[in-house]
C-alpha cells in the first residue's frame, strides 16, 4: 500500500482519492474547532497560501476523539474554518483517527511514523502530564495523541515526518520548504 491507495470522503459527501495529489507535498492534519491548538489553522492557511502554487496540499480531517472538541456537524465545522480562519484547503468528513473505526489512512500513517514525543516547552510538559493521567503507557503506542497532529508526505508519496501538536509551526514550514 501507499498513500495514493487511500480514498476519503469530503464533508459534502464527495469521494476524494489521494492519488489526485501524486507529485505534490502533502500535510495531513487531524483538527478540531474547540481545541487550544485550533489557532494553528491560521498558520496552516498561511502556509497553504504561500506554498500551494509550488506544490503543497493540506488535508484537513476533523476529529472529535479528543475531549469532544469537534462536536459540530461537517457543515458547521467547515463554516467555522472558512469564516474564522479563511481556510481554502480541502476538508474531509469528520472521522476517527484511532480505534476500531479509524480511517484506514490513519492506520497507514501511524505505521509509517511512530509517536516520538512532544518535545520540550510548556505545552509539551502540559500534554505529557494530561496524557499520563489518561493512559500511563501512552508513549508506547503509535496512536494519535491529540488534535493537530500532522503527517508530512513527500512528492513520491513517502510519509517522511510526524509532528505532534506542540511542534513549532516554523519548523513544520521549514520541512515543507525543503520538500518543495
What's this model, at a glance?
This protein has 180 residues and is an alpha+beta fold. The chain has 5 helices and 6 strands; from the N terminus they run E-E-E-H-E-H-H-H-E-E-H. The chain has a single domain (3-179), classed as Glutaredoxin (3-Layer(aba) Sandwich), CATH 3.40.30.10.
Question: What is the topology?
Answer:
Blueprint: E1 7-9, E2 15-17, E3 25-31, H1 40-51, E4 56-62, H2 74-85, H3 104-112, H4 122-134, E5 150-153, E6 159-163, H5 169-179
Parallel strand pairs: 3-4
Antiparallel strand pairs: 1-2, 3-5, 5-6
Pfam families: GSHPx
Keywords: Oxidoreductase, Peroxidase
GO molecular function, one term: peroxidase activity
Q: If you had to describe this structure to a student in words, what would you say it looks like?
A:
By secondary structure, this protein is an alpha+beta fold. It has one domain: Glutaredoxin. Helix content is 32%, strand content 16%. The strands form 2 sheets. Strands 4-3-5-6 form a 4-stranded mixed beta sheet, with helices on one face. A two-stranded antiparallel ribbon has the order 1-2. The longest helix has 13 residues. It is globular. Belongs to the glutathione peroxidase family. It comes from Faecalicoccus pleomorphus.
Amino acid at each position: 500500500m501507499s498513500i495514493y491507495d487511500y480514498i476519503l470522503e469530503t464533508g459534502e459527501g464527495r469521494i476524494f482519492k489521494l492519488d489526485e495529489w501524486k507529485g505534490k507535498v502533502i500535510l495531513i492534519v487531524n483538527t478540531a474547532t474547540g481545541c487550544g491548538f485550533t489557532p494553528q489553522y491560521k498558520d496552516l492557511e498561511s502556509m497553504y497560501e504561500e506554498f500551494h502554487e509550488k506544490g503543497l496540499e493540506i488535508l484537513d480531517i476533523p476529529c472529535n476523539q479528543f475531549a469532544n472538541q469537534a462536536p459540530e456537524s461537517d457543515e458547521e465545522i467547515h463554516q467555522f474554518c472558512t469564516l474564522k480562519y479563511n481556510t481554502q484547503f480541502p476538508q474531509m468528513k469528520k472521522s476517527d483517527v484511532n480505534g476500531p473505526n479509524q480511517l484506514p489512512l490513519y492506520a497507514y500513517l501511524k505505521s509509517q511514523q511512530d509517536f516520538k514525543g512532544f518535545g520540550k516547552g510548556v505545552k509539551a510538559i502540559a500534554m505529557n502530564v494530561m496524557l499520563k493521567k489518561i493512559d500511563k503507557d501512552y508513549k508506547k503506542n503509535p496512536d494519535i495523541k491529540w488534535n493537530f497532529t500532522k503527517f508530512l508526505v513527500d512528492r513520491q508519496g513517502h510519509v517522511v515526518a510526524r509532528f505532534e501538536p506542540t511542534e513549532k509551526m516554523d519548523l513544520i514550514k521549514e520541512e515543507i520548504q525543503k520538500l518543495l
